[in-house]
Write a structure and sequence with these properties.
DNA-binding, DNA-binding (chains A, B, C, D), 2 domains, 81% helix, Arc Repressor Mutant, subunit A, homotetramer, mainly alpha, transcription regulation (chains A, B, C, D), transcription (chains A, B, C, D)
DNA sequence: CATGAATGAGGATTCATTCAT
DNA sequence: TATGAATGAATCCTCATTCAT
């Protein structure tokens, strides 16, 4: 089984290289040569591990959104109550200016693609669904605790949470000022709380 | 006796063709040939009117965001009071599934580029600033009327409005279901109202 | 007849513009647009007066070599004796660093073309023949005066004169130092004198 | 079992193809497709081995002038005395009508470019310097032997030798008659001898 | 005559993909 | 497995030429 593992490691290595390259340079500037350079392997390797260029990006989106989801998921597990859970969730989303910039640049590339390509859209949908579960869980708990509006539909409200998170982080990305990160973090949390109450 | 169209008309014609092509096909699939085909002119024309491909997209983003802003701007002028103004604003943003899809696909492409390219970012910033003026005006009026929270900073809150609008519409775009358009419209308006109150 | 004259004037104007452009930019960088810009006329004019781009250059070479020949021709008419005639000839060839640079840049472009294209070659041949006449005249006079070797074939020796002139001026051009102009001038004259004696 | 040719071999192969194409067709008619066709490789290969078209020509001029210099250099090594050395040098320059035509066509293209472009000019300067060394060596020996004018500056005179060689060969090229090759060869040698004595 | 908008062929360049080693 | 040489389709861009006004 060592073989298989090695292969998976190599793939992850390539995906991470693709992620870095994509974040730095953007979709249309990234070539397989550049990804290979980032990964410090030869150009042939990328083709050995992936069917074609598209496949790399498909897998990258899957890999990325899974990683994000796992991080978010574990972050809410640390808390018991709804509001701390929500705070922890938002905190895990607003990791740091560097991480958010790196991820959202790439994520915007993917959203742009997803708006026309159903393969990307479905992967994103899975991510949305996962996020929705997190949100629903928090909301349901909060409703039981009596801290959130009991008339809210957890499913709908959790989608709204994600919409607001993305809206805030995209706008923060466009402002291009690291010191605004905290302000957007707080603003985002405050807005979500207002909506849930 | 059809005279030659004036230069500016032709440029707009090409920009609209570029917009359509971009919306249909996405950034990396759009070639100058395709834009020319959409505009039903020869390939050389695009180069005659624009320095290069990049210039077309730069001008397109400017043209598009200006157009959107004008539409939004005139929509709020129709109302006197804050809440109807806000409703009118949001209504002008959520025009129709077709229009929103067409615009947001292209806008996502531009946001992705703007995240790495300051030229695009500055154009988008101008758009944000314009939207912010609209928001500020509504909020200030609402605060005078006593319908909005008087402690809100109009400038900050107006940015939050835009973030929420974009967040909702991007998510709607990803859901790829036209009938959700109304629901997202209402949801967006409701969320903004909650935040402003 | 005024019409005709005006046309010829305009053509000369365009040819001079082409000469300037060619000297500044070189064959492959010169476009009809550039020539038109140098002549401060619209692009269409160049096509109105000349069949096509090639025709401009053909006529330019003719015009240029005629102009040079006339200048050389009139310069030797000023003197009576062989050696002063020769000196005057060489002086008229080594006009100034600026003029020589301008001419020889263009002339090299034409020689390069002439080496493969018989149309250019024939025009140059006419120039060579004209120069040969000048040389022959000087040599014949010098032989009568007893200052030149009587066994020289005026025809052959005059070709050698031209070869040496071109050789020196091309090398001077490559040295790219204006102050060497006088030295090459003297060296050229001295070499020719040695050959003729 | 033919191994892949080494990179340097392939580059030389391409340079030779470029040389042939350039000689046949001239600077502005040579495309990368044509060079590739001459080399019997695909279009992409030229870009694989060279940064761009310009780089091919830069390297070609370097390669060509080096080759010429080596040939000239070894030709004078065969003789001991000044005049035989000079004869051998001139003989190596006037190789054959075919070779001279092929080289001087290309060389004229480069001289034309060099007159405006310092990169080409510097490469040519290196060639001139190399030729100058050959000439200086011959002249110095001849002065010691007492067969050349002792007052000549070897450096200057050697430049004059090169000017005369180029002047003669360019003129021969323009005459476009192979049978004149010998006559120009002899004429060139005779002229140089007159200048050195 | 003059203008400059429009055309489209042609060329440099890029890059995903293939494949021999 | 891994490499990187080779391929050629695809694309941006240039520019001579045409032609309506």
């Amino acid at each position: 089984m060592a073989r298989y593992k090695k292969t998976e490691e190599k793939k992850s290595h390539l995906l991470y290289a693709a992620f870095q390259a994509l974040s730095d340079l953007g979709y249309d500037a990234v070539t397989l040569q550049i990804i290979s350079d980032y990964a410090k392997v030869s150009k042939g390797v990328a083709h050995y591990y992936f069917e074609n260029k598209e496949a790399i990006f498909i897998e990258l989106l899957t890999w990325l959104t899974d990683k994000i989801f796992k991080k978010e998921s574990s972050s809410i597990a640390l808390e018991e109550k709804a509001i701390p859970k929500l705070q922890s969730y938002i905190r895990s989303v607003f990791i740091s200016p560097e991480e958010n910039r790196k991820f959202y640049r790439v994520y915007l590339d993917f959203l742009a693609k997803a708006s026309r390509n159903s393969v990307y859209r479905e992967i994103n949908q899975r991510f949305y669904d996962n996020c929705s579960q997190i949100g629903s869980e928090i909301i349901t708990i909060g409703q039981k605790e009596g801290v959130f509006n009991p008339h809210l539909s957890p499913k709908e409200a959790s989608r709204e949470i994600r919409a607001i998170i993305d809206g805030y982080l995209i706008q923060w990305l466009m402002m291009d000022e690291d010191q605004l990160h905290d302000i957007y973090h707080e603003g985002c949390l405050a807005s979500i709380l207002k909506i849930l109450k």
